[in-house]
Amino acid sequence: PFQLLEIIRKEDVALRAILTTHHHWDHARGNEELARLCPGLRVYGADERIGALTHKVTHDQELTFGAIRVRCLFTPCHTSGHMCYFMWEDGSPDAPALFSGDTLFVGGCGKFFEGTAAQMYANLTQILGALPKETKVFCGHECTVRNLKFALKVEPENEAVKKKLAWAKQRDDEDLPTVPSTLQEEFLYNPFLRVTEEPLRKFTGKTDPVEVLRTLRTEKDNFKKPKEQPNPQAMLAFDWGLFSPFLEKK
C-alpha cells in the first residue's frame, strides 16, 4: 500500500475507491491498510472474503467515478467471487480498458481453483470475449512469456504466437511490461480463446469447446519450464558451508 500511496502522491491525485477483482492476498492484501490510512475509502468487490470490503457489486452493475464509467463483469472460476472491471469514458478517443484480474492473462487464463471449465468458457467467450475488440487488457500478473511458451507448444505453427513471444522475451529482458494487450490480439495467440480452432482440437484430442478448455488448462497446469542446472562450484560451496556467514540471521 505504501508504494501505491507514493504513486498517488507523485500523480497529485486523491484515492477515493478501490476496485478489487478477488480476495487472494496478491490482489487484496493492501486493502485494510489503505482503508486505515484513507478514512472513508470505498472498497468494491463481489466476494465477502475481500479485505475491508464496503460495497458489494453484482454482474452488469455500473459505477461512475468522475468521467470514468465502470461495468462490473462477474467471472467466477478462479475464485467463486471473481469480478472483472470494464472501463471507458464517453466521447474519449482512447480505447476502453478491461481489468481482468486472474481470469484472462496475456496469452493465458487463470487456474480453475473454485470453478469449472464450463464457467471459464462462458467467462472468456460470452462475457469478456464479447467486449469491443480494441479493448486494452490489463491483467493481474506478468506471466506472458511463460504463457506464450505454452501457446507455442499447443500451436507450433502459429506465427502470431511466435511473433508475440519474441516481443515478450525482448520486453522481459529490458524489464519492461508486456501488459496491456488488446482483446483482438488475444484471439490470435491465446489458446484459451481459440478452443474452437482445429489445432487446439488436435492438441487436446477433444472437439467440444468446454472439453478442449478443460484439457488445455490441465496441460497448462502440468507445463514445466526446463530447470536450470545449478552451478557445480556453487553447490560445493553450499555443501562446505562457505556461504554460512552470509546467510546467518542478524
TrEMBL record:
GO molecular function ontology, one term from the record: metal ion binding
InterPro entries assigned: Clx_II_MBL, HAGH_C, Hydroxyacylglutathione_Hdrlase, Metallo-B-lactamas, RibonucZ/Hydroxyglut_hydro
CDD domains: hydroxyacylglutathione_hydrolase_MBL-fold (cd07723)
Domain of life: Eukaryota
Cofactor(s) in the UniProt record: Zn(2+)
SMART domains the record matches: Lactamase_B
GO biological process terms on file: methylglyoxal catabolic process to D-lactate via S-lactoyl-glutathione
Domain Metallo-beta-lactamase stretches: 2-141
The entry's keywords: Hydrolase, Metal-binding, Zinc
NCBIfam families to which the protein is assigned, alphabetical: GSH_gloB (TIGR03413)
Protein family per UniProt: Belongs to the metallo-beta-lactamase superfamily. Glyoxalase II family.
The name this protein goes by in its record: HAGHL protein
GN (gene name): Haghl
